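User: I'm putting together a teaching handout on how sequence relates to shape, and I'd like one worked example. Could you take Disease resistance R13L4/SHOC-2-like LRR domain-containing protein from Panicum virgatum, show the sequence you're using, and then write out its predicted structure as tokens right after it?

Assistant: Happy to. First the sequence, then the structure tokens directly below it.
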Amino acid sequence: MGSIEQIHCNIHDVVRSFAQYMARNEALVAQNKETDIADKINSHKFFRLSLETRGSELDELECYSIQAQTSLRTLLSVGPIKTKPGDSLLAFSNLWTLHVEDANFDALVESLNQLKHLRYLSIARTNTSTLPENIGKMKLLQYINLCGCKSLVNLPSSIVMLQHLRFLNIAGTGISNIPKGFHGLANLRNLYMFPVQMDGDWCSLEELGPLSQLTRLHISGLDNVSSPSFATKARIGEKVRLRYLSLECTCRIGHDGQLVIKDEEGIPELQQQQLIEEVLNEFHPPLGLENLEIIWYFGQRLPRWMMSTAVVPLGSLRILSMEDLAYCMELPNVLCQLPCLEFLQIIHAPAIKRVGPEFLQPNHHCLNNSHVRVSFPRLNTLNFNGLVEWEEWEWELQVKATPILEKLILQKCRLRHMPPGLAFHARALKKLYINDMKHLSSLENFTSVVHLDVFRNADLERISNLPKLQKLIIIMCPKMKVLEGLPALQRLDLEDYDMETVPRYLQDLRI
């Protein structure tokens, strides 16, 4: 099993070599910095072709140089493609899989509809500005990835006819609305960046209602919803297969973390805040949800299903990320009770000034008063970044929490002291990152930490009693005076552009 943040995996060299041997007469893999790619392409007829020309001496792949490969079933191309008038995809009518990335593809788009057998289409980060109007005739299409096609502003209306479509990604495009009839894509499993738009009495959220097979869903532009009733019609709670849900508003936050849109008196638009709160209340997810993201939310209170044990549907949640919460004043009080939560990230929440017992202590205890339930029993990674007004973290020694926490990141806040309960109970903590903590003066008694990274902490003076610490990185901490109780230290990286002499605290250090 990989980590919850893993997006790549490796294949054993022996397995890779065996696969290459078995496919030697059917497949060609040509990677960058090879100057004889064209010769290799012309040497044989292949069923599968994988070309990476990005960063190579070839600069651009000539489209005509691969058109003789009329038997291709799979074509993967990463890097520029040089086209000229008359070039098309007609020669590849047998393709099942087409993956083109970081290339000039717009000139070839119109011939896409010639690929009657195509199942998989990915043209991510190309200059594509349009899709064939009759794309609905490509009946076998199951996968469409348009991520990063910034010039693409519309989906053809016939896309709703692709009954076998399972995957659609339009993140990073200019697409702002979805064709009516989208609800007919009954087999859709993965839908990234569904843009909410209002058109009279019609809201695109209704189109999500019948899509019961969804496992991954990303909705953007939620502040365009004019009534909570439209959110209800999305029927998120009925999608029992849903494992990943991302809820995103339109960005209204400036560099200072505050709302940009204000009324004439400079007061935040409270009516809009109340509306977005009501809208998110209607998005209570199904019980099996594992990954939840909330981005650019500007309500003062988080959804009820995150704040009350009576209605919380998050018992299977493993990953929670909340970013740019400009006006939320408190963290959810049920997180500590979630039995599966492994990763918690909160980025840019400037209204939070205190984290107290409600964050760490369950609302109820076991019948035996001598046994208190452990909070965050499976939390592995915790990241607090950009809580710029956060001054107090209350965690007393008697509060048992985070028994298997391995990685903690604290960045851009005003904490003066680390809570005593953290060092005492987080006995599995291995990696600790402390960045831009202006008022923190000491780090002490983290007995299990192996790697410590302190960056740009203006008032940090003392690091002591870290008996297992092996690697220490200190960058731009000008007031550092004391390093002691670090018997296992093997490596120290020290960096400060204003430093003129070796600090005195290094004189007695043994590495």
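A couple of points you could highlight for students: The radius of gyration is 27 Å. The chain has six helices and 28 strands.
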